[in-house]
Automatic annotation (TrEMBL), chain A:
This is ABC transporter ATP-binding protein. Pfam families: ABC_tran. One of its GO terms (molecular function) is ATP binding. Keywords: Amino-acid transport, ATP-binding, Nucleotide-binding, Transport. The keyword Transport applies. Residues 2-231 form the ABC transporter domain. The keyword Transport applies. Belongs to the ABC transporter superfamily. The lineage of its organism: Bacteria, Pseudomonadati, Pseudomonadota, Alphaproteobacteria, Rhodobacterales. GO terms for biological process: L-amino acid transport.
Automatic annotation (TrEMBL), chain B:
Keywords: Amino-acid transport, Cell membrane, Membrane, Transmembrane, Transmembrane helix, Transport. It comes from Sedimentitalea arenosa. Pfam families: BPD_transp_2. This is Branched-chain amino acid ABC transporter permease. The chain crosses the membrane at residues 6-33, 45-62, 68-90, 102-121, 160-179, 208-230, 242-269, 276-297. PANTHER family: ABC TRANSPORTER PERMEASE PROTEIN (PTHR11795:SF447), BRANCHED-CHAIN AMINO ACID TRANSPORT SYSTEM PERMEASE PROTEIN LIVH (PTHR11795). One of its GO terms (molecular function) is transmembrane transporter activity. It is found in: Cell membrane. CDD domains: TM_PBP1_LivH_like. GO terms for cellular component: plasma membrane. It is a multi-pass membrane protein. One of its GO terms (biological process) is amino acid transport. The keyword Transmembrane applies. It comes from the Bacteria.
């Protein structure tokens, strides 16, 4: 469904991604693992069109999205949940969701469906986003992305700084979205938090592919993790 | 005349200054807030508004109110379109780089000023106010221990000056409604808070920038159309509004619209009062001193929020 073919991306003069290729299928969770600075967040930004490609291409169901201007990428059905949440801090919960709904002109039914997944947000609709707790902010960031009825979800460290009950809540939503056929690309530092839900795991190092394995293989053999991540 | 009536007269003059300044400064504040562009050419859009208002009213003729009404609506739109075109052709090309936009808007400043000098000429030209009735104002005095109204000689204003204050207030409320209650306002605020996330959620940031730059210039032009029956149009008239707008925006807090309005009232009123009792130069000195103090003791401005 979402396919990155040999993309090269640089921040200024520093090249971050080198001939990186990934495929995420519908109804699958692909987990991107790598050390700090391996290029995980850069991969997400490149998909969203926030960083230009030097070469290579990114396609979604055959449509080349890497040729679109950045503001058209979300409209193809890619929901982005960035690292650090990046909510519109001064806007209310309802307004943050409104921004998500505007992407594909989704109506009230979509909004209700999303709020059913996060009942806590329904109680806080008129509260400003920056006054929410960390867990609620992560819920809002996720809900904002779900408001555009995504075919692909990009989650960058969704469990960072959350308590275990919140991590569990986020994890359940991810699984629900997978079961609805959404392709999910997940970046996570805490391997134990996601290994149980991942279908496949792609290791990257210095912006290059190392190997991509079924998650079952990792669960069976922890030595692979130690080899690639040094943990 | 006693001190009291003088103070009232000075405050009314100050209120007119404040009303026009608030409009101009809100335009500058919007552009800085959303686009992070320091628009040095803002005063020239103001000047262009005044000059075009003169041109349009002299073109239309007839009753002064007719030409003025057309100018009040058409001129801000024209200036806004010109600014939006400048945004697309110049600022977008230099990727809104902070240093380069300052140099580029200085260039726009000189182009607008010199083109106006070459076409409109060096004269100051008046525009006839659409309505201008003299209104005598009452004052209270105590005689035999009871308050009594009387009309001191020379204490008066004109209906047009009150009209300027009312019109500016209406436009400012309009801007507030657009920013707080409409979808386009929501999009502008989201762009202001996080440009990359706005892009990632399908907001056409470049179009928003063009719109905001046009809106900012349009507000300056509208302020100028309102003031030109009092002040006359001249190709160098953009300097003072630019300086005062910057003072107001810094005192109010960069990018904070309520702060900008409060600071405009503060600076406008004190400018009017100090100019009447002492001298206009002292008013500018004190305003600039206030900016220095704000920058030292509260760099984010009176109403600004310190961003992490």
């Amino acid at each position: 469904m979402l396919e990155l073919s040999e993309i090269n991306v640089a921040y200024g003069r520093a090249q971050i991604l080198r001939d990186l290729s990934l495929t995420v299928n519908a109804g699958e969770i692909l987990c991107l693992l790598g050390r700090n600075g391996a290029g995980k967040t850069t991969t997400m930004k490149a998909i969203m069109g926030l960083l230009p490609l030097m070469s290579g291409r990114i396609t979604l169901d055959g449509q080349t999205i890497s040729e679109l201007p950045a503001h058209k990428v979300a409209g193809t059905g890619i929901g982005y949940i960035p690292q650090g949440r990046r909510l519109f801090a001064d806007l209310t919960v309802a307004q943050n969701l409104e921004i998500g709904l505007m992407v594909r002109n989704s109506g009230g039914a979509v909004r209700d469906g999303v709020l059913d997944l996060f009942p806590r947000l329904r109680e806080r609709l008129h509260q400003r986003a920056e006054t929410l707790s960390g867990g609620e902010q992560q819920m809002l960031a996720t809900a904002r992305a779900l408001c555009l009825e995504p075919r692909v979800l990009l989650l960058d460290e969704p469990t960072e700084g959350l308590q275990p009950s919140m991590i569990e809540a986020i994890r359940q939503v991810i699984v629900v979205m997978r079961d609805r056929g959404v392709a999910i690309l997940l970046v996570e530092q805490r391997i134990d938090a996601i290994l149980s839900v991942a279908d496949r795991v792609a290791f990257i190092e210095n912006g290059r592919n190392l190997e991509t394995l079924p998650a079952d293989a990792l669960r069976a053999d922890h030595a692979i993790l130690e080899r690639h991540l040094g943990v | 005349m006693d001190f009291g009536p003088y103070l009232m007269l000075a405050s009314l003059e100050g209120a007119v200054t404040a009303a026009v300044l608030a409009l101009t400064a809100v335009g500058l504040s919007l552009v800085f807030g959303v686009m992070r562009v320091v628009n040095v050419a803002h005063g020239e859009f103001f000047m262009l508004g005044a000059v075009l208002a003169w041109w349009m009213t002299s073109l239309i003729g007839g009753h002064p109110a007719l030409g003025f009404a057309v100018a009040l609506i058409v001129v801000p739109v024209l200036v806004g379109l010109l600014a939006a075109a400048a945004d697309v052709t110049i600022l977008k090309r230099i990727a809104y780089d902070p240093e380069r936009t300052i140099v580029a808007t200085i260039g726009i400043l000189y182009i607008l000023q010199q083109v106006t000098l070459m076409t409109y000429g060096p004269d100051a030209r008046p525009v006839e106010p659409p309505f201008n009735t003299r209104l005598a104002l009452p004052w209270v005095e105590f005689s035999d221990g009871r308050p009594q109204l009387y009309w001191p000689w020379g204490l008066s204003t004109t209906s047009y000056k009150l009209g300027v204050i009312a019109a500016a207030s209406v436009v400012l409320i309009g801007v507030w409604i657009v920013m707080a209650r409409t979808r386009i306002g929501l999009v502008m605020r989201a762009t202001q808070m996080d440009r990359d996330m706005a892009l990632a959620f399908g907001i056409p940031v470049e179009k928003v920038y063009g719109l905001v730059f046009g809106l900012g210039a349009g507000l300056a032009a509208m302020a100028a159309v309102l003031i030109v029956p009092i002040q006359q149009a001249h190709y160098l008239m953009g300097g003072d509004p630019l300086l005062l707008s910057f003072i107001v925006v810094i005192i109010g807090g960069l990018g904070s619209l309520p702060g900008t309005v409060v600071a405009a009232i503060l600076i406008g009123l004190s400018d009017g009062i100090i100019s009447v009792f002492f001298s206009p130069t002292l008013a500018k000195i004190l305003a600039t001193l206030l900016v220095a103090l704000v920058l030292v003791f509260r760099p984010q401005g009176l109403f600004g929020v310190r961003r992490a």
